[in-house]
Amino acid sequence: MGRDERVDDLYVNDCDRIFGKLSVLPSCKLYPDLMEMCDPIIRQWYDTFAFDKENSQLWKRMRRNIPKELNESAFILNEMMKHFDAIDKDSRPVTIIDMCSGVGYLSMFLSHLLPEEKVSRIIPIDVMFPAHNASKKKDSNEEETQEVLEKPKSGPHLSIYHLKSPIHPIGIYPRRANIKKGRELRQITEYLIARAPGPVVILGVHLCKSLSVHTIRLFNTTIQRNKSATLFLKPCCLPGRKDLQRREPPFWEFEHMQKGGFGVKTLYCEEIDQTGDDAKETHSSSKDTAIEMKKNARLLTKPKDRDSQVNKNNGEGESRHDHNHNPDQRLPKSNQKNSLFSKWVELLLDAVHLGDGVTRRIEHCPVQLNHFQNQFIVATN
Question: Which end of the chain is more exposed for a tag (fewer CB within 10 A), N or C?
């Protein structure tokens, strides 16, 4: 019997199971009012999706993932409610962009928690969604295409059936895009940002590696178009050290930053000393860089059975500790990764362009007790 099956036996129904798991997560104590507001939302999802025989796998996934997703999104959900409380009712409605949304839990919760009159639409974006016009057909009596709600089909794509459900008070309009491609990021700017009737809020929860960089790039482009914008970003795992082995390691250009941007070498081979508004970078010697690259070369040449342990998921695509090391060495290595992650978040913050009226900050919220990825970037103009 699997772990999930043993856990299921402890609860009468799926909702009890979800709330039971939520009760031991940090967000339950940090945001009790939010958890109380989410209770009827989850129960409505249960009534809608749990008994849909044609889409039975959807609820099984939701039942398993909702506690984790709500816990990690709680800070942004809480900040979003405060943000919209401060918006005047007569203001133009806000467009919400949920970057790399995955299944779309954050968008779904926001649809139920935010005031309808203040939101134009919610647009979750993910590379695994079906093509933008895949679920549309044209009515011979109408000039424009009409969206058609279809049951999800088997295949490599994420289903959008649950996102298009009429139970969501605020309309959710999923869109497929690979934000690592400049052309598709520009399309988001031209077709979603530029055409938004009012301010824009850009969200990103657990964006791995360069996905956080491209989300910040989108925010910078938005404010440079004199558009009112707000950013809530929770970065995730770091770029891998193995990228140091490439002839040209990844480097992301931001003209307003010293040295014109930052890259993998900035993270692993350079030290940053930020004093006030000035950021000074001190390069390590070429000898130190060579040592770093040799070290990573050895990691890449380890046997496959050890690679499977070394490359497990964590802060930078490596395990938190090498299983061949002394257990007493685990804490220092964990602290090292914590320091690297903080450095990564500081680099991302520095990439946010400080235009007229733009403010940026790092917020710490301990939603993950056993990990160090508890820093959020908040920026607005």
Answer: N
Strand duo 200-207 + 270-275: pairing? unpaired
Torsion, CA 176, CA 180, CA 182, CA 183, rounded to 10? -20
- pLDDT tens string 323-357: 444 444 444 555 667 888 999 999 999 999 988 88
Contact 365, 78 (CB under 8 A): no
Which tokens sit at 252?
């992301």
Angle at which helices 14-22 and 32-49 cross, to 10°: 160
pLDDT of residue 334: 59
Percent of the chain predicted with pLDDT > 90: 54
**Phi, psi angle pair for 368, to nearest 5°:** -120, 100
- Other C-beta atoms closer than 10 Å to the C-beta of 376 total 22
Q: Tens digits of per-residue pLDDT, 201-234? A: 999 998 988 999 999 999 999 999 889 999 999 9
Question: What pairing do the DSSP bridges indicate for beta strands 175-176 and 119-126?
Answer: parallel
pTM for this one? 0.78
DSSP SS3 for 218: helix
Asked if residue 61 lies in contact with residue 18, where contact means CB atoms within 8 angstroms, the answer is no
CA-wise closest residue to 377 among 339, 351, 355: 351
The neighbouring-strand residues paired with 272 are 281
Q: Show the tokens assigned to 211.
A: 């996905």
pLDDT digits (tens, 9 = 90+) for 113-167: 999 999 999 999 999 998 765 444 444 444 443 444 444 444 557 889 899 999 9
Number of helices and strands (H, E) in the chain?
A: 12, 13
> Is residue 228 within 8 Å of residue 92, measured between CB atoms?
no
Q: What is the mean pLDDT of the segment spanning 47-59?
A: 85
- The average pLDDT across 171-195 equals 93
Q: Are 72 and 206 within 8 A, CB to CB?
A: yes
- Cβ neighbours of 78 (radius 10 Å): 17
| Residues linked to residue 231 through DSSP beta bridges, in sequence order | 202, 379
Q: What is the DSSP string of 153-190?
A: -SSSSPP-TTTT-TT-SS-B--EE--TTSHHHHHHHII
